[in-house]
Amino acid sequence: MKFRLLPIPPLWLGVLPLIPGAGLLSLLALPRFRRLPVGWRALLAAFLALQLLAALLSPQPLLSLPLALIRGGLVVALIVAGYMLGHTRAVRPVLLGYSVVALTAFATTVVLHPAAVFTTRLVHPYYTSVSLGLAGTLGLLLAVTWRGGPWVWRVVGGGLSLGMFLWSGSRGPLIALVAGLAAALVVGLRSQWKASLLALAGTAVLVLGLQTAVPGGVTSRFLENTLNGRGIFWADALSAGRLHPWGGTGPYQLGPAFSTQYSDASCKLWLPVQTYGLEGGCPPALDALRGAWLIAHNTAFHLLGETGIIGLSGWLALMGALALAAWRCRDPLVNGVTWAILAMGLVDTPTFLPNVGHAELYWLLGGVGVALAQKNLLADQPAPRLSPAAPLLALALLTYFTLPLWLERVRPSVRAGVPILRALTLPTRLTAGENVTLFLKADLPQGKFRVRGLACPINGPCQNVVQTALKASPSGWTRLTLKGLPAGRYRLSLQLSDQRARLSVERPVAELVRMIDVE
What percentage of the chain has pLDDT greater than the value 90? Predict the structure, then answer.
């Protein structure tokens, strides 16, 4: 069996982190789909069929079908491209791309925040801080697992990636880094243990040193254990999954489910709306996808909301099979990136496509893992079948991604007293577009709570109209401001949630509902 490179030069991979959506070039590999082993062709065909079936069962099948076909085809193309590359040497230019991203982010942060360089999280023209942290993690894995070649590339690329990881102050990538280095260490114990331990030790020393030298610096975030609103995103995605259990909302159409982020008056694309001049809303052609890049910050919850049980089954089956192929290929980089991305899936959605290179690298190296696993077989042995280990790995991934739900069931209640929302005063007449002052009476025990208000019209997505911390007061009354609404009749739901730092879906512990008319 021969593994030849794609007709695209390997240096093309260096632009994956630099140009969002550059992974679309992998579609050129689709004509070589038939070169995959029979078992993998069948699995990928089944995966694509499940995505299309889920799209048919979504609320807008005519929109969902082409989107599911494009996204599913991109996943297949990246796996095929990785299979044709056949070795991790071909992806080394990605480290160069991450180095350029790091230098760009460093320069941008210094220019925009010269007086607070080390107390401001790293910023970039089009990367988020979490994406920068993950870029640093993947760059470090590339540097640590690099075999042969000039050592200067590993040192410079790894150093820039480490700086980007630390300066981002993102905790999700910390999970990815630990899991990725551990996976690389397990399969490459003889050749990788020194580099892996050195990377971990260097990271720990730098975190402690920076926290001592710069009190209140960005590295202090690594010691925090708050979810930063993820509990609400998880609850919203699960609600969408319950509403559309089989096919979900459709690819890139989960945005309206996120009540705290989505708005009819905004256009949530990858970059801030100011970049496009779309502060007043999306053009009609983009209106249905205005929330396309809003994510649930959990791989399983997001895919359940978007593709339902049917689509999620296909995604998990494919991820489990790729994890098995990574283990069989015994390559440190393939295993490191595979398990780093999967580990971060607990608190983010790093497999989402198209992306700024992170998800593309995961699927691409998945294909490389398939090729290397095939190469490791003896020539007289038949191609390995997808053993029962693949569905078991898929089940293990589902259990891991849904850990917040499992913890809710086994965690005992530690609060004495039950919060109660007793009364709500509202004006008799609400004017369209004008903010309204209202008063809420609540009996609260000791603790941290947040109240959010959802205004749900008869037809259409709910809008977040109130969101603020709520504390116990002597009188029990709290003044709130209700954001202006368009004319219509709404179901106003004021929900009180527990803000203790814990890994769980944020569900309301008390709720007060009123019907309101806006004229």
Answer: 39
What is the model's pLDDT at position 402? 93
Q: Are 442 and 470 in contact (CB under 8 A)?
A: yes
How far is CA 209 from each of CA 224, 277, 313, rounded to the nearest angstrom?
17, 42, 45
- Residue 473: what are its φ and ψ, rounded to 5°? -125, 155
**Which ranges of 169-277 would DSSP assign to H, the alpha helix?**
172-187, 189-213, 230-243, 273-276
* Two tokens, residue 256: 């309206």
DSSP string, 281-347: ---GGGGGGTTTT---SSHHHHHHHHHHHHHHHHHHHHHHHHHHHHHHHT-HHHHHHHHHHHHHTTT
Rounded Cα–Cα distance for residues 76 and 518 (Å): 49
Torsion of CA 278, 281, 287, 288, to 10 degrees: 110
Q: Contact 364/91 with Cβ under 8 angstroms?
A: yes
Residues ≥6 apart with Cβ < 8 Å to 284: none
d(CA 91, CA 84): 12
Q: Do residues 256 and 291 lie in contact, with contact meaning Cβ atoms separated by under 8 Å?
A: yes
Global pTM exceeds 0.85: yes
pLDDT in tens, 469-484: 877 777 778 888 888 8
Residue 11, judged by CB atoms within 10 A of its CB (0-12, 13-18, 19+), counts as: exposed
Cβ neighbours, 10 Å, residue 111: 9
Q: Are 438 and 494 in contact (CB under 8 A)?
A: no
Q: Judge whether 79 and 367 are in contact, CB under 8 Å.
A: yes
Residue 7 confidence (pLDDT) above 50 = no
